[in-house]
Amino acid sequence: MKNKKHNIIGIILTVIITIGFIWSIYRLSSLSNDRGPLSGEEIRANELEAYENLKLIAAAQEEYKRRDWDGDGKKLYAMFYVHMWRSVSLAGEPIGVNLIGKELAFAMEVSKTFKGYYYIDLRKRLIDTRAIEEFDYTKEWGLAALPGVRGRTGLLTFIIDQSNVIYATTKMHSQPEYPYDPGGSGWARIDSRADLEKFQARVSYPD
Predict the structure, then answer these.
(1) In whole angstroms, what is the distance from residue 189 CA to residue 163 CA?
(2) With contact defined as beta carbons under 8 Å apart, do 95 and 70 qualify?
(3) Strand, helix or coil for residue 3
(4) 99, 118 in Cβ contact below 8 A?
(5) Is the pLDDT assigned to residue 155 strictly greater than 90?
(6) Which of 16, 42, 99, 130 could form a disulfide with 60 if both were Cys (CB 3.0 to 4.6 A apart)?
(7) Which of these, 32, 4, 8, 60, lies nearest to 116 by C-alpha position?
(8) What pTM value is reported for the model?
(9) Which H/E stretch holds residue 136?
């Protein structure tokens, strides 16, 4: 009974801390959104930052999978990328993972952007033009990076999966699945910052 009470208290404290952090990030995001339109240079800088964040998350995923963080006997990729900052044990207690920073970890919604972008976990993959298959987190994962305000904080959308290959497009990716054959369906493969800068050079940005 005593352990159960401690677990409940731990869960409550975790929820309170999480809500407080989310609110602080929301307020920072609201303040940043009150400023005027970004210049083309600032938008391009946001896109470069998003690209680097995806590389960071990909490296963190490989490190995360090397360990059974929650004690369930399985070594998996993180189903929720926020777990690469804080995970939760089977007893409901927070686990400090710290493979990514707090601000990036909580940039999960349009109202909580980090440097102009937010990141969404992709749960499924299109395996052909029609069929959809859920990710097997023993061997795969997927993530998309989207501009908080399209045309204002970023013009490009990015995706990445366990291959660590990043693709970019000027179109908004609104589906919750990793696309089938992105390279053959209009996505540009981005292997370096130089590749991204070349791609940006073909895009029209505000002055």
Answers:
(1) 12
(2) yes
(3) helix
(4) no
(5) yes
(6) 99
(7) 32
(8) 0.80
(9) none
Start-end of H helices in 34-109: 40-64, 102-105
Rounded CA separation 191/58 (Å): 13
What tokens does 123 get? 């749960």
Contact 151, 187 (CB under 8 A): no
Pairing between β-strand 124-126 and β-strand 177-178 as defined by DSSP bridges:
parallel
Residues 145-157 have a mean pLDDT of 95
Query: Are the beta carbons of 31 and 111 closer than 8 angstroms?
Result: no
Q: 80-100 burial by CB neighbour count: b if 16+ within 10 A, else e?
A: ebbbbbbbbeeeebeeebebb
C-alpha 106/C-alpha 101 separation (Å) is: 9
pLDDT of residue 87: 92
Written as six digits, the tokens of 111 are 């109202």
Closest-CA residue to 156 (of 166, 181, 127, 82): 166
